[in-house]
Structure prediction request, 265 residues.
Amino acid sequence: MELGRGQVAIVAGASGAIGSTTVRALFRRGVNVVLAALYDETLDVLAREAAELGLGALVVPTDLRDRAEIDLLVAKTLVTFGRIDILINAAGIGGTPSLCDATDDELENVVAINLLGPARLIHAVLPAMKAQRRGAIVNVGSIAGETAVMGMYSASKFGLRGLTDTVRREVRSYNVEVTLIQPGFVRSPMNPALGARVPGPEIVADAIVAALERPRRKHVVPGVYRIPILIAGAFPALSDLVFGDARIQHRLNRDARAARAASRN
Prediction:
């Protein structure tokens, strides 16, 4: 797909680190963007930036756990712009590495936002894309969707990987491209302890734009993570041995448990 003026993209999670960086990358290519997220002043900042560039930006505060709000988001997009060319599912929340550490509400929220949210958005936009016989969907997953070490978060990203594959096959004859981007650790509020030791969200935004311009099934960023993913896929028993070690489990959960304890004080 050649990106340019007149095209319309819905970006879910537009106020987040990856989402907002992706929105600005789309602005640079002249794409009109519908900004969907729980309300945050970042949405208004992005809308002003679009206006300065002579582009359309529609702010639609959206709770991805609510199907009615998702349907309203899509309806407002079609009324305002008359088309939907691109859907980017960049919204997501983290979870505790240990399943047993999570509350039931936390388990439900991770699945609702990381998996059901993208599924419902895709379900809502596909009639328009199929009618146009053209479109592109990009889901932002995680390397945790290839190697299960992050509790319900991994489960939700495994599910998103399966959802991406099945939708790609379902809509192939309608010329709708579906891609999964799988980032490793990037700088964002989800990974505050890592600081500048990891790449910024630009690496993910660049991968999203590249997937729109040159569709592919999936793309792992940074590329260095492809090697451990290959090893984990080829030797699952080795992953069981390594990540099943009590010392490794302690390290995986140490920071999360410390943060939880601090929030209770």
The chain has nine helices and seven strands. The radius of gyration is 18 Å. Strands lie at 8-12, 32-37, 57-61, 86-89, 135-140, 176-183, 218-221.
